[in-house]
Design goal:
92 residues; mainly alpha; 77% helix
Length: 92
Amino acid sequence: MEVGLPINRRAWSSAVVGWASLVVVVALVTYTLIGARLDGQANDPHAWAGATTGLFGAGLAAVLLTRSPRHPIGWLFLAACPRRWPSSATSR
């Protein structure tokens, strides 16, 4: 006799990927923007622009993939925005 509820892994796996991507981007933003100040480096305006782009893209991807796991725009944001951010923010 099965007591547990069936889990639809396909429905929540894309949401988990989206939110995990957002967590990684937030950690990278924190490391780049706050860690640079603690190391005594100058404030880079390109790092702020790249961080904003990465946070927006990862956040939008997480929300879209949570609401609609097969949404193509969510997958595009997940693939494009977090990849664009590290190249502009960490190239000092």
